[in-house]
């Protein structure tokens, strides 16, 4: 087995696919660093101005009337006017550098918005305001910041917040990336059958060795993510590694960035193993790397195209492969909302990995490698 | 050479990967035609109740307003601009009531032109475009509205000239040809280009499986590659078949539209928009898309002979298609020569309709420039491929 692994390392090391994947990932991360830098992502002043504009547009729908307690405006109108006033307060607090006022007005704004969802006629202005779940995230996050007394970040993203952002972006596309990377995992060997016919191992061991060597490359890629983000330390500093992030796992709550990163990495590793095993099975069944890729991608977008399938097949691991959406509670905004729990998702993906492992062991390995001699 | 073409084409068409691509495209277009297209909800609708509500409110204001020296400036402004505006709204309402499509188109064209003039030039911060543009987080809502109103004004002017049958579906751009036009403006070009990449990605390297068979053919490597490029171009053009199935489904539901329908083209001049015919627009798009196919095919042939790895082919193609998302920023055309980057032309429909120019704030992303740049790049790729394939040490596989 060790010799097998050693052989694979030598092969993988010089494989153009791996080299180019690493270069591609590096360029992508550096590009994202520059994007964050030029777009000034996370800068509160900028986000504030767009909030103000959205509220103003929402208020166009109403006649301008007295917005005080005993005025004749509707309750929603009063609520929106008050929201706009609070956004102005936030802006003032930012300019004058008064973090406490900024925090308090933000909390007040979020709770006002939470009230607004119950008011009459909200549907008309819904497109100008964040969705219910987004607002809930914000409220929980701000309350946590207030409770712990840490300072609210109002500058553009520094190293740790950027990592959280990066893993969020990657979370949606990691499966796609992995299926692109692994769709031909067996094909290259199948093409030189005379070579692998000579391996003195069973099919199981061959697959395991293949998976381990691929997973090592995945490990290198994950490491690369951290390394390539380092320039941001120079631009914007390290940032606070225990800064909270609001996420949804059954309930809305906050995770420190480090914990979020840990969960994301566990998820990414599980998804990687899942994809590699799936690719192995499909490679053997379909004997074509592109068909493998298409089948994987179709399975992935199926819950997106037909959202009602999610509640119909709750055990389907493909519901959870976009873990960013799962942790952002995106499925709660669907016409028929489903609460997907990230931890359960991990269990389902783990179960599928076990099932696929068994399938590889008992169904694909009857006979030895020679069985796949005829594959082209 | 012709025999080799047939040989390659039969391989191409019986390749299971290529069949799968056609099937998936067919599935997507059917999904689009049956599920996405029927719920298309344009912002500029033919909405009688919306027009009526606006008309009545303003008519009431005009009936009751008394202008004195003490009147607020905005009251005077409103009293000055609403009468003409309301005339157009009245004409639109009457036309809907009597079912006169041409009158509706004429009044609506004037309405959009007048509304845009009032909102964009005189009424900043007081008057607003249709609230559909001001969504949460959109900082460019006014610019979007300005574009859409001028676009609609030009479009309805074209309808009023009445070269084609008019209906509500035509006004709301729901007919098959107009759906195609909207798709060309959004993600259709990207789908076509990805299909092109997937068709071309293994066309050279598939021969590695049976090298002895192919090496015996009495034809030079360079010519082989030309033939392979031709086959894959033909394959890309055949993607029209699944697309037309989707369009047939849409057409049977909402009507087909016709080739004389106007398509407004943006240019930063005195008149923001000029109309061209739908047929002309589609032909231009087809031409440009074929240039893109040639670009991608020649790029992938080059990468194939240089790197000899399918995965690298795939990455190289995708980088060119998705690069624009990384650096694109609205209005960046004012700061550099954007016309020299082939990646700026990915959105074929938007380049031809001028919307890319509007987003980049430039005038240089035109069809002519695009064809020049794409043609130049294609020639360079082919030239390098030619030089490489003529080296004495070169081996195709």
**Cα end-to-end separation of chain B:** 20 Å
> Could you tell me the number of beta strands of chain B?
2
* Beta-strand content of chain A: under 5%
What low-confidence regions of chain A span 5 or more consecutive residues with pLDDT below 50? none
Shape descriptor of chain A reads: elongated
Q: What is the helix/strand order of chain A? A: HHHHHHHHHHHHEEHHHHH
| Relative helix content of chain A | 55-70%
Strand line-up in the sheet with most strands of chain A: 1-2
- How are strands sequenced across the largest beta sheet of chain B? 1-2
Give the overall form of chain B.
Answer: elongated
Q: What is the H-and-E element order of chain B? A: HHHHHHHHHHHHEEHHHHH
Notable characteristics:
heterodimer; A: 376 residues; mainly alpha; two-stranded antiparallel sheet; 17 helices; 2 strands; 68% helix; 3% strand; elongated; B: 397 residues; 67% helix
How is the topology of this model organized?
The complex is a heterodimer of chains A (376) and B (397).
Chain A: H1 2-13, H2 16-39, H3 44-60, H4 75-96, H5 99-116, H6 122-125, H7 132-148, H8 159-182, H9 187-190, H10 193-197, H11 203-228, H12 231-236, E1 244-249, E2 251-256, H13 257-286, H14 289-305, H15 308-312, H16 323-327, H17 342-362
Antiparallel strand pairs in A: 1-2
Helix pairs in contact in A: 1-11, 2-11, 3-4, 4-5, 5-7, 8-13, 8-14, 11-13, 13-14, 13-17
Chain B: H1 2-14, H2 16-36, H3 48-64, H4 73-98, H5 101-122, H6 141-160, H7 168-171, H8 176-185, H9 188-200, H10 211-215, H11 221-237, H12 240-254, E1 262-266, E2 273-277, H13 278-307, H14 310-327, H15 348-353, H16 355-360, H17 367-389
Helix pairs in contact in B: 1-11, 2-12, 3-4, 4-5, 5-6, 8-12, 8-13, 9-11, 9-13, 9-14, 11-13, 13-14, 13-17
């Amino acid at each position: 087995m060790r010799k097998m692994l050693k052989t694979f390392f030598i092969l993988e090391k010089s494989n153009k696919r791996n080299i180019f994947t690493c270069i591609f990932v590096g360029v992508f991360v550096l590009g994202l660093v520059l994007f964050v830098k030029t777009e000034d992502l996370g800068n509160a002043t900028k986000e504030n101005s767009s909030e103000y504009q959205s509220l103003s547009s929402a208020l166009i729908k109403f006649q301008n009337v007295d917005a005080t307690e005993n005025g004749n405006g509707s309750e929603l109108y009063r609520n929106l006017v008050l929201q706009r006033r609070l956004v102005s307060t936030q802006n003032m607090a930012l300019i004058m550098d008064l973090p406490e006022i900024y925090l308090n007005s933000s909390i007040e704004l979020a709770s006002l918005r939470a009230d607004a969802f119950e008011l009459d006629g909200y549907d008309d202005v819904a497109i100008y305001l964040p969705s219910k779940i987004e607002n809930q995230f914000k409220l929980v996050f701000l309350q946590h910041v207030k409770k712990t007394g840490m300072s609210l970040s109002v500058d553009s993203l520094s190293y740790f917040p950027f990592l959280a952002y990066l893993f969020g972006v990657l979370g949606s596309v990691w499966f796609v990336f992995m299926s692109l990377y692994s769709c031909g995992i067996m094909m290259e060997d199948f093409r030189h059958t005379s070579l692998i016919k000579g391996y003195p191992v069973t099919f199981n061991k061959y697959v395991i060795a293949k998976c381990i060597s691929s997973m090592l490359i995945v490990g290198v890629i994950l490491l690369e993510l951290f390394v390539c983000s380092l320039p941001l330390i120079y631009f914007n500093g390290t940032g606070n590694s225990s800064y909270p992030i609001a996420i949804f796992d059954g309930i809305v709550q906050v995770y420190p960035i480090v914990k979020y990163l840990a969960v994301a990495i566990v998820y990414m590793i599980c998804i990687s193993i899942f994809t590699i095993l799936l690719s192995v099975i499909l490679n053997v069944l379909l004997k074509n790397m592109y068909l493998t890729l298409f089948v994987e991608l179709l399975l992935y977008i199926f819950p997106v195209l037909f959202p009602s399938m999610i509640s119909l097949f709750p055990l389907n691991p493909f519901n959870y492969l976009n873990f960013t959406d799962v942790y952002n509670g995106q499925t709660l905004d669907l016409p028929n909302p489903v609460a997907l729990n990230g931890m359960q998702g991990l269990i389902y993906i783990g179960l599928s990995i076990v099932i696929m492992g068994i399938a590889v062991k008992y169904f694909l390995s009857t006979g030895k490698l020679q069985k796949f001699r005829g594959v082209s | 050479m012709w025999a080799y073409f047939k040989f390659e084409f039969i391989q191409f068409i019986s390749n299971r990967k290529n069949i799968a691509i056609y099937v998936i495209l067919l599935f997507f277009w059917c999904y689009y035609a049956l599920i996405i297209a029927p719920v298309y909800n344009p912002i500029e609708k033919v909405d009688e109740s919306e027009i009526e509500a606006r008309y009545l409110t303003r008519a009431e204001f005009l009936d009751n307003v008394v202008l004195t020296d003490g009147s607020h400036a905005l009251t005077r402004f409103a009293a000055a601009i609403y009468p003409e505006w309301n005339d157009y709204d009245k004409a639109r309402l009457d036309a809907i009531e009597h079912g006169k499509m041409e009158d509706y188109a004429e009044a609506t064209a004037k309405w959009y032109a007048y509304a845009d003039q009032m909102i964009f030039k005189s009424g900043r911060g007081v008057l607003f475009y249709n609230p559909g543009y001001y969504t949460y987080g959109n900082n460019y809502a006014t610019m979007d509205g300005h574009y859409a109103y001028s676009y609609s004004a030009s479009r309805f002017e074209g309808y009023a000239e009445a070269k084609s049958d008019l209906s509500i579906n035509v006004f709301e751009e729901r007919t098959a040809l107009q759906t195609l036009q909207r798709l060309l403006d959004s993600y259709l070009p990207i789908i076509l280009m990805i299909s092109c990449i997937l068709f071309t990605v293994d066309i050279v390297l598939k021969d590695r499986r049976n090298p002895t068979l192919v090496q015996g053919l009495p034809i030079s490597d360079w010519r082989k590659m030309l033939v392979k490029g031709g086959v894959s171009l033909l394959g890309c053009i055949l993607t029209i078949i699944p697309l037309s199935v989707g369009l047939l489904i849409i057409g049977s539901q909402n009507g087909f539209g016709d080739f004389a329908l106007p398509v407004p083209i943006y240019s930063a001049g005195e008149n923001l928009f000029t109309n061209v015919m739908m047929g002309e627009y589609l032909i231009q798009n087809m031409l440009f898309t074929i240039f893109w196919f040639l670009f991608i095919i020649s790029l992938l042939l080059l990468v194939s002979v240089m790197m000899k790895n399918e995965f690298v082919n795939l990455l190289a193609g995708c980088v060119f298609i998705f690069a624009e998302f990384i650096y694109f920023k609205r209005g960046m055309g004012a700061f550099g020569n954007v016309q020299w980057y082939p990646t700026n032309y990915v959105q074929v429909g938007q380049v031809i309709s001028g919307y890319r120019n509007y987003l980049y704030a430039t005038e240089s992303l035109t069809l002519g420039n695009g064809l020049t740049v794409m043609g130049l790049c294609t020639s360079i790729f082919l030239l390098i491929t030619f030089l490489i394939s003529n080296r004495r040490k070169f081996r195709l596989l």
